[in-house]
């Protein structure tokens, strides 16, 4: 038997070329591979095996000597170590007087008893988005007349980042606020890297002017909130024996790693956060906290520095320092947009990514015919099947999980 050496050399050559090609691809894509695979493996190992974030208090704590010196000299420039920006537009009386009676029951509701204070994080130039929210899910009069609940909706914003357009936009904002009276603006530049400043604005304003609200919500201005479903959910929380305490609910990110890729919008350098995993946190697109948790987050902002510019991660750092853990709700959306279907609307709380279709979605989601679709045994069975088809997809959607189909 004779061996075909030419064929052997050809096979070896093909193997060598294939191996070289694979190595080249790995080398080119290593940064992405490291981010998507290796960093997540490190992060989850840290989160679920070590599961300790004791370093947060010491690493993010404000220098206590500096803090006490600021408090003793009566400086208005900072509260603790947090820069206090002056208000350009403010409505201290937005939440009315005191807490008003009523406990947690609908029968005792008064116009001063605020169920929910809802902050919408908005950019100065997004006039149309704010108007769409006022006309739909953010309409306070609708909530009072239809649901007999008192909700306060305000828009949190800074100043326009473009100095050339700033004065023109500011005049338009003042005119807008004169008409609607729902803008809360401080004198900081409204950019992505100042989102934590905007978060601090929300919790400080809530503490100072609306501490009697039972719940506080933070949401983006491209989010859709199914207000009737949200109010129903909050009613349910208040009717429980424990009441609405220690609540922080939304779309939870567990064991998320910092993004080290410098091209990413969410890039966080090692110097800012050297650990392999963030504390658990909820997606900043929309989450709800109870009044006692809002007070704890306010206290945390006084003792933790705010160098972490990703606001939802900073929220997680504050909550971890105060012993608060996020709770998952399957109908709070992540970054993805919820499927459009009556069987989804029946349970929807939030959906993200609605910059232009808020009005049409509001009309569809609040149509009385939605309730009839899922009524009865056959309707319930039909909607379960539809939700399975819409949510249990083989690819990642970052909206509602497959579990929501059976909830």
Automatic annotation (TrEMBL):
EC number assigned by the record: 2.4.1.-
Matching InterPro entries: Glyco_trans_31
UniProt catalytic activity: a beta-D-Gal-(1->4)-beta-D-Glc-(1<->1)-Cer(d18:1(4E)) + UDP-N-acetyl-alpha-D-glucosamine = a beta-D-GlcNAc-(1->3)-beta-D-Gal-(1->4)-beta-D-Glc-(1<->1)-Cer(d18:1(4E)) + UDP + H(+); a neolactoside nLc4Cer(d18:1(4E)) + UDP-N-acetyl-alpha-D-glucosamine = a neolactoside IV(3)-beta-GlcNAc-nLc4Cer(d18:1(4E)) + UDP + H(+)
Class of this enzyme: transferase
Alphabetical keyword list: Glycoprotein, Glycosyltransferase, Golgi apparatus, Membrane, Signal-anchor, Transferase, Transmembrane, Transmembrane helix
Gene Ontology molecular function: lactosylceramide 1,3-N-acetyl-beta-D-glucosaminyltransferase activity
Family named by the database record: Belongs to the glycosyltransferase 31 family.
Name of the protein this chain belongs to: Hexosyltransferase
The species this protein was found in: Myripristis murdjan
């Amino acid at each position: 038997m004779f061996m075909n050496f030419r064929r052997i050399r050809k096979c070896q050559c093909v193997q060598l070329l294939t191996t070289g090609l694979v190595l080249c691809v790995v080398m080119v894509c290593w940064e992405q591979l490291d981010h998507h695979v290796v960093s997540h493996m490190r992060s989850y190992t840290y989160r679920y095996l070590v599961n300790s974030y004791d370093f947060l208090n010491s690493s993010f704590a404000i220098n206590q000597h500096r803090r006490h010196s600021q408090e003793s000299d009566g400086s208005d420039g900072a509260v603790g170590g947090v820069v206090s920006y002056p208000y350009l537009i403010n409505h201290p009386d937005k939440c009315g007087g005191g807490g008003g009676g009523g406990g947690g029951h609908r029968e005792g509701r008064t116009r001063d008893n605020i169920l929910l204070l809802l902050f919408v994080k908005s950019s100065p130039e997004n006039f149309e988005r704010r108007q769409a929210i006022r006309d739909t899910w953010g309409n306070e009069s609708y909530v009072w007349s239809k649901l007999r609940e008192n909700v306060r909706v305000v828009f949190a914003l800074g100043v326009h980042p473009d100095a050339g357009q700033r004065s023109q936009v500011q005049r338009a904002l003042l005119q807008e606020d004169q008409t609607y009276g729902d803008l809360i603006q401080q004198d900081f530049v409204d950019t992505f890297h100042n989102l934590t400043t905007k978060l601090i604005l929300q919790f400080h304003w809530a503490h100072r002017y609306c501490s009697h609200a039972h719940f506080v919500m933070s949401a983006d201005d491209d989010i859709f909130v199914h207000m009737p479903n949200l109010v129903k959910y909050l009613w349910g929380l208040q009717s429980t024996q424990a009441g609405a305490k220690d609540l922080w609910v939304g779309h939870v990110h567990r064991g998320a790693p910092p993004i080290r890729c410098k091209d990413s919008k969410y890039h966080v350098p090692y110097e800012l956060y050297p650990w392999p995993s963030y504390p658990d946190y909820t997606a900043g697109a929309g989450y709800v906290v109870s009044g006692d948790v809002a007070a704890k987050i306010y206290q945390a902002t006084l003792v933790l520095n705010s160098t972490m510019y990703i606001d939802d991660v900073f929220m997680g750092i504050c909550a971890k320092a105060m012993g608060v853990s996020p709770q998952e709700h399957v109908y709070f959306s992540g970054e993805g947009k919820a499927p459009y279907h009556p069987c989804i609307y029946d349970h929807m709380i939030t959906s993200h990514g609605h910059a232009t279709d808020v009005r049409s979605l509001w009309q569809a989601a609040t149509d009385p015919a939605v309730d009839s679709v899922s009524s009865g045994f056959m309707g319930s069975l039909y909607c379960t099947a539809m939700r399975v088809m819409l949510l249990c997809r083989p690819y990642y959607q970052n909206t509602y999980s497959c579990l929501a189909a059976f909830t």
